[in-house]
């Protein structure tokens, strides 16, 4: 007999964060994914990031599409809001929810199939509009749920489990996000939680469109020699440009890096991103340089990871539209319909 429910009781000695939650309070149901799937490590990193940031679970809205990756919101933040949309439609549902209630933290989780094929039109518009969200693509180069067909992000020449080479050019979602104006762009690897957890924390504290491409090996269909999305390939070709720390205002800021090796930037919510440079020449505030480096290293078979770009002056969709500061879903009839006298004044001003 299989038991798929986690025990509700917690050990009394489990550590609590500043708002009294244990790490287990941020978990969801037991995962039904294949043992070793990279997506489960990303779920664990999301749980860790939210716990460390003292995020109130009821303030998070998780949205996803269809795919193994899109199933994962069931496996974390079980006390948060969730909406599992249809294939490729997560970005528009997230945009609508964000417009109605700007007070929630929006976490979009998708796959390379979900976002780079059927949902590509939705992805580009959510990013270019600067929707305030964390958009994570769990990128394994295949359609895992439908048994391992190449996705649009699969590298040309990479070989399927059955030995067939992919002949199409890959679509790089990081380069696209940069070109579309995302204000926080990062790439990481599901097998590197030391890099991934701070990148998720930085994205959660960022205002604007934060995009994370996380290489996440599919152990069932894309983890063999010849694949460029396998654990071995990514470990051997990972080229990290920096290492991020996120310090929230209440935390003591401990300096442990040599001066000159780091750069700090304050986010809108008061948190500080501290970047330790691993590649001295890399400037994460230069969008064009980021695009160049990613393409150059990709041509060499390298996978560039880290915080690739952020915009210190970032804004979001509500800022662009100049909406009122309160959630639109709290406006009352009197505020939405100010009456004929106001309408007459507006009409008169247009004559
Ligand atoms: C409209 C529609 N077309 C096709 C499908 C079949 N389908 C389900 S998941 C999927 C691709 C999933 O790939 P990805 O987003 O990369 O997720 P993964 O399983 O790899 O994590 C497809 C094509 C569907 N569910 N709905
Ligand atoms: S099929 Fe691939 S993507 Fe889906 S759960 Fe299994 S390992 Fe993960
Ligand atoms: Mg996939």
Keywords:
351 residues, alpha/beta, Rossmann fold, 8-stranded mixed beta sheet, 3-stranded antiparallel beta sheet, 13 strands, 30% helix, 19% strand, globular, binds thiamine diphosphate, binds iron/sulfur cluster, binds magnesium ion
CATH homologous superfamily heading = Thiamin diphosphate (ThDP)-binding fold, Pyr/PP domains
The domain count comes to 1
Please state the CA-atom Rg, rounded to the nearest Å: 21 Å
Strand content: 15-25%
Order of strands, widest sheet: 2-1-3-4-8-7-13-9
Report the span from N to C terminus.
75 Å
CATH structural architecture:
3-Layer(aba) Sandwich
Kindly report the oligomeric state of this protein: single chain
What is the top-level CATH class? Alpha Beta
The secondary-structure class comes to alpha/beta
- The stretches of 5 or more residues where confidence is low (pLDDT under 50) are none
| Mean residue pLDDT | 94
Order of helices and strands: HEHEHEHHEEEHEHEHEEEEHEHHH
Number of separate strands: 13
Helix content: 25-40%
Organism: Luteimonas cucumeris
Pfam families: TPP_enzyme_C (PF02775)
Keywords: Oxidoreductase
GO molecular function: oxidoreductase activity, acting on the aldehyde or oxo group of donors, iron-sulfur protein as acceptor; thiamine pyrophosphate binding
């Amino acid at each position: 007999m299989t038991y798929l429910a986690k025990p509700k009781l917690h050990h009394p000695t489990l550590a609590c964060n500043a708002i009294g939650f244990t790490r287990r309070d941020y978990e969801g149901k037991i995962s039904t994914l294949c043992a070793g799937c990279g997506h489960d490590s990303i779920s664990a990193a999301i749980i860790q990031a939210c716990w460390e940031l003292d995020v109130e679970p009821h303030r998070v809205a998780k949205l996803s599409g269809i795919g193994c990756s899109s199933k994962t919101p069931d496996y974390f933040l079980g006390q948060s809001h969730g909406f599992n949309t249809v294939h490729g439609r997560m970005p528009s549902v997230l945009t609508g929810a964000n417009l109605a209630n700007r007070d929630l933290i929006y976490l979009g989780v998708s796959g390379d199939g979900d976002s780079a094929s059927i949902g590509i039109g939705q992805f580009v518009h959510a990013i270019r509009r600067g929707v305030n969200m964390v958009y994570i693509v769990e990128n394994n180069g295949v359609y895992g749920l439908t048994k391992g067909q190449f996705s649009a992000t699969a590298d040309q020449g990479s070989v399927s489990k059955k030995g067939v080479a992919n002949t199409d050019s890959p679509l790089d979602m990081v380069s696209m996000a940069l070109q579309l104006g995302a204000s926080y762009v990062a790439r990481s690897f599901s097998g590197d939680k030391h890099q991934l957890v701070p990148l998720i924390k930085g994205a959660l504290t960022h205002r604007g469109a934060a995009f994370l491409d996380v290489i996440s090996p599919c152990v069932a269909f894309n983890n063999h020699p010849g694949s460029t999305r396998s654990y071995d390939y990514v470990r051997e070709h990972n080229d990290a440009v920096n290492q991020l720390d996120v310090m929230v205002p209440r935390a003591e800021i401990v300096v442990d890096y040599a001066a000159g090796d780091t750069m700090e930037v304050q986010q809108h919510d008061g948190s500080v991103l501290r970047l330790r440079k691993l590649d001295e020449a890399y400037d994460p505030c230069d969008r064009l340089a980021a695009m160049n480096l990613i393409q150059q290293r990709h041509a060499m078979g390298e996978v560039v990871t880290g915080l690739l770009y952020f915009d210190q002056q970032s804004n979001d969709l509500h800022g662009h539209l100049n909406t009122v500061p309160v959630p639109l879903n709290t406006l009352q009839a009197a505020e939405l319909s100010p009456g004929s006298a106001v309408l007459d004044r507006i009409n008169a001003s247009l004559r």
